[in-house]
Design goal:
Two copies of one chain form a homodimer. The first copy, chain A, is built from six helices and 16 strands. By secondary structure, chain A is α+β, with helices and mostly antiparallel strands.
């Protein structure tokens, strides 16, 4: 099934969305929010699946699904851990910062805890104070988990996967070097992430999901060489630096648009599109 | 007023506690959880204050307050940012790791985002897989904030302070160097933090709170020199290394007890005591 959150209050209002993303039906009479569903997933999931089946069969009242009215499926969360599963991305970005990548990164996962108190909806603007911060996107896949015990093994963690979403991990590249030099990881350099309109259960992904990892993407390669391009500007700039001596693609400017979407093998959008404009942030309050 | 959360469900059940920490009364008929109170603080706070006033005056049914039945005031939170306000602590710890402290640390705050999905209650055990991880405590003061807009200034942030708590920022010292060397900050080296039994509003602190900072502590100094000792073992070990050539105090062992409490100027406990035993963690699930 596919779930979304209508913008409402701090945690949204739970919707069940049709597989083709055309229709949606309110599920908040069963479970008010996606967080509440996750907190009691074994009870909530079968009831939400019934709604999804009824929606798919046209047996239930529904409205057109409008991603513009959506918050992130989880508008805020109790944990947000961002890992680097594509180590080639890390290697390129470190090269771009003039930093070495330790060999252990190929076996020991690189992961940080980020802000999870204010996620952006799929069409919310990317608001930044200053273009000079080096505004970039990163297209990522995220898993929404149930409870994972401390020291869980791989199988135990994989069994906790409840839902899968796309993410725009907004990054302020020109703040990263100074921030990481302090030794405590990212803070200002990773502002609020944005999420796809819907979160999907693993069964929606068929063979593309192996039980632990989604395989509908791969390392970046130039389009001219048969690749699909890059999932962030920093990576492209690094490749340009290696090839041409300096980066040629600029970071995002106010007014630029970022669109992130993942089609299935038949070309149909799985998660809906993250579609954001970059905008100047006007400080609020005093 | 002073607020606590009885262990119940994932977010606890809200209690109002008397100033002397002897009595408590259920507040969940007004606001079910502390998170719900924070989400609508302007509406919740006056109603909770009425209960606190009635409890103080003995005009309301109550029970003896039992910290052993308490979760952390916020059993989980949407954000947990840990900053180093006492730069001398950072300087000592860095020396202990053989790392330099950049001069900018004296003006540019050092802060990281940590795990906030599973905080420990005041008397919950500190469960660790292996003593060899170098188990340590850090006694800290934390502020629970309302909404803070991006790019807020100092005054704006100070006005968002809702409650103050004590924290045991459990640290696994022997995991830190390797983890920080990866460049993305702490993860395994900072397991769940524990919190004091009650969270208090700033007015409970009188002149000890200047509107932004609580001044009832100070840099560590040996007891023999008129100081109050240290708020973590690592700092003491560093001082021992400087004085005697090597550390003499061992990190915590299974069975050891950590007690963290802050008295007011008259010697009365403000927040109640964090009082935890260190225990071997038995992995759960498979």
């Amino acid at each position: 099934m596919k779930l979304a959150s209508l913008k409402r209050g701090r945690d949204g209002q739970l919707l069940v969305v049709s597989r083709d993303l055309a229709r949606a039906t309110d599920a908040s009479h069963v479970v008010p929010t996606l967080q509440a569903a996750l907190d009691d997933w074994d009870a909530a999931a079968p009831r939400l699946q019934e709604i999804a089946d009824a929606l798919e069969a046209g047996r239930i009242a529904h409205l057109a699904f409008d991603p513009k009215k959506c918050a992130a499926p989880l508008p805020r969360a109790f944990q947000w851990a961002d890992g680097s599963a594509y180590v080639n991305h890390v290697e390129l970005l470190r090269k771009a910062r003039g930093a070495e990548m330790p060999a252990s990164f190929w076996s020991d996962p690189l992961m940080y805890q980020g802000g999870s108190d204010a996620f952006l909806g799929p069409t919310d603007p990317i608001e930044v104070v200053d273009e000079a911060y080096g505004i970039d996107f990163e297209a990522e896949v995220a898993m929404i988990l149930g409870d994972v015990a401390m020291a869980a093994g791989r199988e135990q963690a994989a069994r906790a996967i409840r839902l899968i979403v796309l993410v725009n991990d907004v990054s302020l590249r020109n703040l990263i070097a100074a921030e990481l030099a302090k030794g405590f990881g990212f803070f200002h350099a990773k502002p609020s992430s944005a999420f796809s309109p819907v979160a999907v259960t693993p069964d929606e992904l068929g063979h593309a999901f192996d039980g632990a990892k989604l395989a509908l993407g791969g390392p970046g390669r130039p389009v001219a060489e048969g690749g699909l391009g890059y999932s962030c500007i920093a990576e492209r700039r690094m490749v340009e630096t290696i090839r041409f001596g300096k980066p040629q693609t600029e970071f995002l400017k106010f007014g630029d648009r970022v669109r992130i979407e993942m089609p299935d093998a038949d070309g149909r959008s799985i998660f809906g599109a993250i579609d954001q404009k970059v905008a100047r942030y006007a400080p609020r309050g005093k």
